[in-house]
């Protein structure tokens, strides 16, 4: 039996850092962001849907123009909802197929790395949820630095997601990522050890 762990966090709270730690320890990670890119590649059903809903201006040379689409969806929560709605089932299908493939390969632990885990209802398909969290101040600071954006834009991006405090309350396990990467690594390794996933 594989344990299916849902991994989530807020934007810029360090979820990728934790995701990479799992990968480094040979644990398969199904990354929803990879799925989101896969389902909108040239010639896919997902790209067709985007063109129908958002128009030709978001397509360039048969490929998705991410900047153009990003501008539309980040400034308008309704548009973002629309995007999530038209691609949701395709991404869910991709995640499901990847997960099943790893289960068939008998991996004891399979991690589903999903930024909008709670917002998209994925807590229903995982056994446990791990949330990577920071304080709101640290999150804001890191996002501004990471994306080279001003405070207002950063706050907008954070506001587009469920507050990190709410996610922490629903988690089975919280990784405190306010400190150093080493500090985060120790927490992840401790969790793996306790669950007997380290060989």
TrEMBL record:
<dbReference type="GO" id="GO:0004140">
    <property type="term" value="F:dephospho-CoA kinase activity"/>
</dbReference>
<keyword id="KW-0547">Nucleotide-binding</keyword>
<feature type="binding site">
    <location>
        <begin position="12"/>
        <end position="17"/>
    </location>
    <ligand>
        <name>ATP</name>
    </ligand>
</feature>
<comment type="function">
    <text>Catalyzes the phosphorylation of the 3'-hydroxyl group of dephosphocoenzyme A to form coenzyme A.</text>
</comment>
<keyword id="KW-0173">Coenzyme A biosynthesis</keyword>
<dbReference type="Pfam" id="PF01121">
    <property type="entry name" value="CoaE"/>
</dbReference>
<dbReference type="InterPro" id="IPR001977">
    <property type="entry name" value="Depp_CoAkinase"/>
</dbReference>
<dbReference type="GO" id="GO:0015937">
    <property type="term" value="P:coenzyme A biosynthetic process"/>
</dbReference>
<keyword id="KW-0067">ATP-binding</keyword>
<dbReference type="InterPro" id="IPR027417">
    <property type="entry name" value="P-loop_NTPase"/>
</dbReference>
<dbReference type="GO" id="GO:0005524">
    <property type="term" value="F:ATP binding"/>
</dbReference>
<keyword id="KW-0418">Kinase</keyword>
<comment type="similarity">
    <text>Belongs to the CoaE family.</text>
</comment>
<keyword id="KW-0963">Cytoplasm</keyword>
<keyword id="KW-0808">Transferase</keyword>
<comment type="pathway">
    <text>Cofactor biosynthesis; coenzyme A biosynthesis; CoA from (R)-pantothenate: step 5/5.</text>
</comment>
<protein>
    <recommendedName>
        <fullName>Dephospho-CoA kinase</fullName>
        <ecNumber>2.7.1.24</ecNumber>
    </recommendedName>
</protein>
<dbReference type="GO" id="GO:0005737">
    <property type="term" value="C:cytoplasm"/>
</dbReference>
């Amino acid at each position: 039996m594989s344990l299916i762990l849902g991994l989530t966090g807020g934007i810029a709270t360090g979820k990728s850092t934790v995701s990479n730690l799992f990968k480094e320890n040979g644990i398969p990670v199904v990354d929803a962001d990879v799925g989101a890119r896969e389902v909108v590649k040239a010639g896919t059903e997902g790209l067709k849907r985007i063109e129908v809903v958002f128009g030709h201006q978001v397509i360039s040379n048969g490929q998705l123009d991410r900047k153009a689409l990003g501008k539309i969806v980040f400034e308008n929560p309704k548009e973002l909802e629309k995007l999530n709605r038209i691609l949701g089932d395709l991404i869910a299908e991709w995640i499901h197929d990847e997960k099943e493939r790893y289960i068939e390969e008998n991996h004891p632990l399979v991690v589903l790395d999903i930024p909008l885990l709670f917002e998209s209802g994925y807590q229903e398909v995982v056994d446990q949820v791990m949330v990577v969290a920071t304080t709101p101040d640290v999150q804001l600071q890191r996002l501004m630095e990471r994306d080279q954006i001003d405070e207002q834009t950063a706050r907008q991006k954070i506001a587009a997601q469920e507050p990190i405090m709410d996610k922490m309350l629903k988690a089975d396990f919280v990784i405190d990522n306010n400190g150093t990467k080493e500090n985060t690594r120790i927490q992840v390794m401790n969790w793996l050890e306790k669950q007997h996933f380290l060989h």
